């Protein structure tokens, strides 16, 4: 189970990710800076995104790993932020229907065990016309990139973190939300998707 795996590596997780930060942090900032109103971040991890949120956002954050969440809490305190943290799974969000103006997911859906169910939960807790922001690892449109880069990554990351970088998360988002903007980076290996909850 991914929770136990992330608990085990929480102490050195950021060290493992540091080589990618110069590529991903600008994208995190672009994604998170769009948040408005009452906002939920799913899979907040160690809290790398926290410093990018607008000051007027009322922020809630969940993660399945208690150890990772402890690090996020420490970071929020250092930043002087008031964040409501909960240990929870994306597939079972502990919030009422139509509760949030914005939901943010940053590099999460490659690890979520049941992505379809998690998407349905995001729709449920979002207000009608609420905004969903996804910054995700996704399968590339290039089969060569998938074969030479993402498949080897999956062979390493799947046993280590239950991470599957070959998921079609962008297609799942399109299925359930009205996409307003989609930007592909690095041959589609990373995508930023901004979507509206068009439920009646």
From TrEMBL:
- List the residue ranges forming a coiled coil, or say none: none
- On whether Heme is a keyword of this UniProt record, the answer is no
Q: Does the keyword Transferase apply?
A: yes
Q: Which residues form the Methyltransferase type domain?
A: 40-134
Name the Pfam families for this protein. Answer: Methyltransf_11 (PF08241)
Q: Which GO terms describe its molecular function?
A: methyltransferase activity; S-adenosylmethionine-dependent methyltransferase activity
What does the UniProt keyword field contain?
Methyltransferase, S-adenosyl-L-methionine, Transferase
Q: Which GO terms describe its biological process?
A: methylation
> Which protein are we looking at?
SAM-dependent methyltransferase, UbiE/COQ5 family
Q: What is the lineage of its organism?
A: Archaea, Methanobacteriati, Methanobacteriota, Thermococci, Thermococcales
Protein species of origin = Thermococcus kodakarensis (strain ATCC BAA-918 / JCM 12380 / KOD1) (Pyrococcus kodakaraensis (strain KOD1))
- Which residues span the membrane? none
